[in-house]
Amino acid sequence: MLAVSIVLQPLTLNAQEAALNAATGTPRIARPSDQVLVVRGAKIYPISGPPIENGVVIVRAGKIEAVGAAGSITAPTDARVIDATGKVLMPGIVDTHSHIGIIGNPPVAANVDANEGSGPVQPQLRAIDAINPSAAGVRIANAGGITTANIMPGSGNVIGGQTAYVKLRGQTIEEMLIPGTIGGMKMANGENPKHYGRRDQAPMTRMEVAALARREYTKAQEYKRKWDDYNKAVAAGSKDAKAPERDLGLEALVQVLDGKRIVQHHTHRADDIMTVVRIADEFHYRVVIHHGSEAYLVAEELAKRHIPVTLTIVDSPGGKLEAMNVNEHAAAILEKAGVKVAINTDDDINSSRFILREAALAVRGGMSEQGALRALTINGAEMLDLGDRVGTLEKGKDADFVILSGPPFGVYTKVLETWIEGEKVFDRRNPADLRYATGGYDVAGRYPKFDAATVGGAQ
Amino acid sequence: MTRPSLRCVLLSVVVLAISHTVLAQKIAVVADKLYTITSEAQGQPGVILIENGKITAVHMGSNVPAGYTVMHAVYVTPGLIDAKTTAGISGAYNIPADQDQDEQSEPNTADVRALDSFNPREMLLEYINTYGITTIQAAPGITNPIAGQAGIFKTVGPKTVGPTVDQLAVKPVSAIVFNLGESPKEFYGKKDKAPTTRMMTAAIIREGLLNAQAYQKKWADWNASEKKDPTKQPSRDLKLEAISLALRGDVPAIFNAYRADDIDTAIRLAQEFKLKLILSSVTEGYLETQVIKQSGAAALVGPTLQRLESIETSNASLEDAAILAQAGIPVALMTGFENYVPKNRVLLFEAGVAAGNGLGFEGALRASTIDAAKILGIADRVGSLEAGKDADVVLYDGDPFEYTSHVTAVVVNGKLSYQRE
To answer: Which chain B residue shows the shortest CA-CA distance from A346?
Structure first.
């Protein structure tokens, strides 16, 4: 899906990418253990194939080495073995839309950095400069089985800034960032960016929201042309070619035009969704529809264009006008129309602990269980260009997985363990971790000791 | 399959609903697993007979006498009760036009009644009805220290035809609502008005209660006077009359409190004025089980899914309901108040969370039926499937609390309010 890159990128883009790679290339975490890990006995949902009763997963150096039925594959004798008999194992969940860490805990002004309110166009902003890896929300997401997330700026701006594709581990954002990724571009239309109207500023109409986006991408096209011309001149041996002035925002938008950054677009109403489609068509950029409350009304249009939708599945309609037609059947309708569907938390709209529940509600509304499992894993991974790395349990992929106590969509099912690249990041048996599964964000202080067995805590 | 909105669905079924409500005066609900709540056998095959809005008989097995319209389901429970919500007085649009839950003009609005804001045609009511919630206590919001009067209402579903608020009211005035914690002081504090501290919130409440005591005495003295001199008759004060309802114990006092020390404040005030105390939200209640137990207060817990959006919910626990119930405190579940997306929580889902986090299937079922009815003082009418009670019945195709199950039909007052298509 990546657009063919032009011969010479503007130097500035290379510089930025180099800077990012420098930041992500040498993670300051312990290297994955060289000891081979074997998880056996669980019913495995590899997603890439049918469920495997009594399955085995073999992990080496943070990667999946093999997945199969017991007896079909052999593990080295010195492996560390985890017995998951009677449990369920699925890939780590990919949350395509989260604000953990960028909306901290508690979410009071001091901890909230999602929306730069000084203007509606902010492509130069980077989520990585505001994410707090120590926020309890990150650990709470682990307790929900989430291993990969797209952490984004909010929806208050037409162009909100650069999102971050992360693994939910580590003490610094550099440790969290998935190497080689530069994130997406957050955009929004509909009600939220119109809030500037209350200050007598643009945008105050949907027309202007669209016009702002078109203006910026037109500028980005021109900016790209200038750099292309410059690079061509340099390549042709010109000595007096003058480098254009750098513009951090336009650089990031050029990455969108080049297909290196997917637009992750907040949009609810059907007509707003079609506005997103119209502008994406005009500028030939790749886009994922986020929330998509009324996407089911234009399912055929989206299917035709292969535009994926990541749904935020909430308990009830309303709260804002553009969410009035939230419909339990939305995921099922989209699935039937052939639209690729993911399910996200939009944490803190939904708690990251309840992403499995969101998918269960999609099943309640008629989505297939298989479709709902894909919506939690590979479909989301593909919407972040991470489909070759995460989202299924296949040889060569990152060893990100979740061990559940029962069926994925059961109300009594608990996330027991969450693993990222062969390292355990959540274990419900650990009292400190259990608090993230059941408690608030200030879980360390006053949470008393319970008799876990009697209050249903342990499993 | 495309369902543009509940409203359109509603319009299309009105004709059908009218004919149905006329015909289906005698309904037999046949269950594979019947949960009457109060009888000995639970989860066995059974039949509920309904006539003229009431349950006339309950028996085990599957025999249905002649003359009944039969409805069958895998699971059958009583209509669920949401013990405290703003649905009906806070609408789905979330714009000033449909927000009537919080009279934010002054901190003591004891004289306002949910009854007078309640919109039976609010789509959220229709929505929650389709998830089996047939009775709700609609309560004023969380801003005012003395917020006003809650009311208990039946819900209407997509198939219900035009009842008025007064027809839906089970208890037009069911409680006086008091609010502690962050909300009152943050709202009025921003306007440089009292209360700006928890101290002042408590002081405003005490003053209201003291004034009501004095008011009651004034009236008692006048009533006791021989001449009942009309010129000396005290003038009526609707706020003090409302607070007097709680002082006399005619209705309970609901104190909304999150933090443990706010729960303590509620208990302190309730004891000073001998109020029948019901705590709501009770976020840190699990830290205070002995204190709450000794106070005799009941707890309306939830929402268990509450966003960790303030400092006072920082210690929220999904196990709160389970721990309180285990300590012997009467527990009901509620959905409370939501100010954004989603505009409303669904009690059925909240009960599922509680069931899965220690309360268990039967505990969660009781907390959303009979225990709620007892706490709210409406157990003579709802909360269990027994002869003589209102025919509020929910039918499911699987375990009610499993997210993937469906409510297949809802009956309120003996009439079909929702049927799954």
So the answer is: B341
